[in-house]
Each structure stands twice: as C-alpha cells, then as structure tokens.
Amino acid sequence: MKCPSCGREIPQGQNWCRMCQPESWEGFYENEKEAPQTGKGNRHVWEDGKDVLPERPENSNSDGMWLARLEWVDPKKQKEAYNPVLQPLALARPVPMTEEERRETAVVVEEPAVPEVRGTPEVPKEQEPVISYLPPKEPGIFLTNRKVVMALGCVLALTLAGAWIGWVLGGRQTAGEYEDQMSGLTRELEDVREEAEALQSERDKLAEEQEALLSLSETLAAGDELEALELADAYSDLLPGDLLSGVRGRVYEAGKASYLNGDKNQAEEYFSALGDWSRSADYLDLIRMERDGVDESDYDRLVEIVDLPNASALLFADEDMSLTYLEGEWETGTLDDYYFKMVKNDEGGHTASYNLPSFDLEGYFYLEDGVYAVGTEKETAVDYFRFTAAGKNDLEVYCYKDGQTYTLHRA
User: What percentage of the chain carries pLDDT values higher than 90?
Assistant: First the structure.
C-alpha cells in the first residue's frame, strides 16, 4: 500500500505516511469493504494515522458512511482521489439523526486477520482504500434549492429590465423637455434681440429727429421759410405731423403776405413750394388770371375762388361775367327781408329789381367794377350799390343811401 501524497510504502490500514499525515483527515467510504482493514471486526476511524475504536461519529450520514474531519487537503491529491460515484454523496446535505437511528444504522466492518510476514508485504491493488475529494463544509440554499435561485434570478432580471426601460423612457422624455426648454430659451433670446434692435433703431431715430429739429429751428430763426420747408420735407419721416403742418402753415402765411403786399412773384414761389397744401393751388390760379387776364373759360374757376383777395374785383372787372354772376334772386333771409333780383329780358338785356335802401330815380342801370348806378346817362348816373362777391352763393351789398352793408344769399 502506498501513501497517496508521496508514494512511499505504508503499512496496511494507514492512509498516509508519517511525513504526509495531516492533523485530521476526512474520508467517505461507500461500504465496509472499501474501508481500511485493521484486522478488528468492528467500526473504526483514524486519528494521527493510528487506529482507534471511537463511538459512531455524530456527523455520519444515513448510509453508514464514515466521516472524519480534515483541516487541510492537497488540491492535487484531492483531484486524483476524486470518485464520481461518491461525488453526489459528498454534495448531499446530511440529515440530522437521533441516537437510536445512529445505533440501528451503524455499520460494523469485519476485517480479516492479516498473516504475519517478514518484510514489507505487497498489498493487492484491489484492497487499496478509495479516497474521495474533500466536500464543502456546509452547502447553503444557493446549492440545494435551485428553484429558489432561478426564481430570484428571474425577479432580478425583470427588475433590471424594468429599470432599463424606465431609464430609456425617462431619458427620452428628459431629452424632449430639454429640447422644449432650449426652444423656449431660443425664442426668448430672439425676442430680446429684436427688442434690442428696436430700441437701437428708436435711439437712432431720436438722434436724427434732434438733428432735424435743430437744423429746422435754426433755419426758421433765420427767416428762410423755403429752406425750412425743404428740411421739413426731407425729415418728414422723422418729424411729427403737427410740426410739419406748422412749417407749411408758416410758408403759406408768408405766401399770403407776399401776395397782399403785391409781391406776386415771391407769393407764387411760396405757393408753388407748398403744392396742393391748403389753398396754395387757388392762389396760384388767381395769380395766373391776374397776370394773363380772364375770359369766359375762367368764369367757373374764378367763381370757385371768388372769396380770395382781389378775386371779386377780378370777377366784376368784366361786365358780362358780373351780370352772369348776379343773375338770380338774392335775399338777406332776416326780418328786414331785403332782396335783389337780376333777370334777362326778352330783348337780351337784363332787368333788376330790389327793395334795398336806394334813391328814387328813373333811368337805366349801369354796372362797372361792381358798382351799380342809375341814371339816364352813364356819366350822370348815381351810385346806388357796390357789389362784392363773398363766395359762390354769397354777396355783400353796400348801399350808398344809408351807408350800410347787407349780406345776401343766393335763393
């Protein structure tokens, strides 16, 4: 028989030589035949390589296999001593037994007597003990209850899968919220930028307005209305409307003043600069008629502007246009109820009737430059009335008899 560790020859009944013997050794034997032979017909274990006759071990299994403690086992020898038949037995959890069950299941190993021989006897190979590998001390739940382990594994896998799905969905939602927030911030930045640009534009506009106002005020202070008008037109987009109207009104008044003062050329220059503003065009037509003269084609236009200065004198300067204007019935429309009436007669002339204060004379009437006179001859005729056209349908009549002026309206 040889030592399983170093291969030295050892006596029958020993498992190790004295050099390789551990402090304690644990081995399993399937039956009494495979247990080491001691020559004593009863059960046994080994301690320190010697045979002893102890009580039945408390940690033996129900199959009567012997169990002893082993603190250290050489891994190489353990692998060589592995027995696939005993492997399932080594992994089985021992079932606690009562003392009575232990006695009933005790295995008594009878070993044949060994004849005395000189020298080292050869031990048949079939009598060498079978050494199993060292089993784990105490297998736990993860080795014995595989269903529980599998269930726990499934639960863990499902939990991890749910957590991963939640993380993915949460990540997508978070990404969407992040995009919304970024879009909102972008819109806010665009609004701020637009507001800043608008403020800068207003600031530039105000600066230009200040410059325009300064230039305009200096020009008006210098008395150059035409240049002021040019500046106002140039800054029409910057200056307020009432200021522009004020500048144009000042130029208009300057044109009227020039006209009344007899400076028709200067007045025409002012009114031409204003264009159609207010009655500038009417003054321009009046200046043209005064310069070029009037004819029948100018009657309607002259009647429209007859309220302007000198327009009435221009109208009554022509006898035919004067009679045409006076045709019809005029009345005061007051309690006095004065009237003046001019109609054409059958002879192609005109006949006048009235109840205004006048002299009681006989003869013909004569109309020249708006003065109505009565007499047998033009040179000796007495002035009765002086007509002034106040509008297309308004007539002012000065009566020489009482020195009063009456306003009549076309009936």
Answer: 37
